[in-house]
Amino acid sequence: MNDLLKKGFLLGLGAAVTSKEKFESKVKQLVDKNELTQEQAKAVLQQFIEKGETKKGEWQAQQYEQMKKFAQEIGLATKEDINELRARITELESKLEEK
Hints:
Blueprint: H1 2-32, H2 38-74, H3 79-98
């Protein structure tokens, strides 16, 4: 399953890089045709990058939730589960020491 997630991530990364390159090429063409100034092109590229960063964060959050759901479905313990068990063990050990 890890390999599948890795391949999906690399596919998305490749698509993003290709899209960015195509977008930059298109903006350069507009500058060359004097349809955009250099300043406007920089602003457009900056907006594109900012939107990409926002989407990246959203994508990561969705991936985290999907992985968490998958882990629950197959019965894997999460970090939260393990930390909760550790806390319970510590509590039980301290109760045993008191006796």
